[in-house]
Amino acid sequence: MPKRGFLSAALVAGCLSLTMGCGSAPVPESASPQVPVTAQPASSGPADGPEPVKPTGDAVNPHKVRWTSAKPVSKGRKVKLVWWSGVAPCSVLDRVKVKETTKRVTITLYEGTAPKAVNASCIMIAIEKTTTVKLRKPLGNRKLVDGAKN
To answer: For 131, which of 73, 103, 109, 144 is 20 to 30 Å away at the CA?
Structure first.
């Protein structure tokens, strides 16, 4: 598997050749694609972890969103969900639906656009987000299910 530095250098080289082909100024020697370049994350960085968010309840055109992980916390009384999303106010958590049975807990995330951003231009950057959901009963041996996968 190629190393991250090599992929970044290849990406920079591709971008530089694309830029050169579009008639822009020549690339200075100091921007040589031979130098490994590390890509910067869109958010404040993985060391900070996912961005904590709360449901707004007023999103326009809400739709189901799959979560990437779910971790029981507070002795199983709550579940911490993590998923990838766009930037606010263009992508906001509208609501979280929780359906509990004796054998499973189905959690569905709904995202949409904040009312103030309906006619706004939105950049397409992925942000990792998290929210914590309270359960009626501790999770115990019940299975966690993503309601957006149905």
So the answer is: 103
